[in-house]
Request: fold
Amino acid sequence: PMFKKVLVANRGEIAVRILRACEERGVETVAVYSDADRNALHVRYANEAYHIGPPPSAESYLRIDKIIDVAKKAGADAIHPGYGFLAENDDFAQAVIDAGITFIGPSPESMRLMGDKISARKTVMAAGVPVVPGTAAGLRDEQIQAEAAAIGFPVLIKASAGGGGKGMRAVRTPEELEPSLGAARREAKSAFGDDTVYLEKLIERPRHIEIQILGDKHGHVIHLGERECSIQRRHQKLIEEAPSVAVSAELRARMGEVAVKAAQSVGYYSAGTMEFLLDQSGNFYFLEMNTRLQVEHPVTELVTGVDIVKEMMTIADGRRLRWKQEDIKPKGWAIECRI
Reply:
């Protein structure tokens, strides 16, 4: 086995998923739990389990100090963050590394670069990746209004630190812009503690296509094809499908090539997802990157035969990817419903 003992810094279904991958690899496991999860499946499934605090996540699963303390106490030599909680927190990744423990995920530097939507846009644009026309962040309202006129309506206001549709507003006329800016800033401040917003051209009736990538620490990056997640409610994904009915083999190859190039531009390794908008004419634009394992990873695993969680462990251990791009041939169909 690559690691003797892995701590899973998460709960619920994703914790069980990672624990199972460890067990199949012959790696011992450590679970953490709050008071609310004392009898949860992930606690019973792991070889060892440690209490880390009361039910609120801010006092348990989000406590970096407690998680690292448990890892040291248990003798874990690696930590997998799962998704949600601390999964995209570069401070957590750095703290794990500073404690002499392997972080099963990307480097803190690439998380930092790609975690902020504005810096991610700048980074991929420099690498020649197409992005939706838009503005820089940090502009005053009057500057944004001037830029909106130049981009042309309809436009989309987005929170720089955002996610899950928070701080997002579609604006179809100049008259709607000022009140929408105020509302978006207030919502972003409340959700993320940061009211920085920017504008993007609103692509009408786009498809939301994401490309799963895997990269090792030796500069080898491949893609595992696409997932379609266009069926959404309040900008939250409901249905995930792989492959997409709208993506031909030729388009898949082009989008995959762009996703790989974007990942390589920041020296990215581990699992990650590049999200794109696909318009009615077949043009696609980079939206953002998720620097973690995603909820929807199983649909890609089912059609490619690649175990993404096990590959993350292999990569974290410094080993080379055993897959080449030509090995990845989607077979069959998979759908996930987010209930």
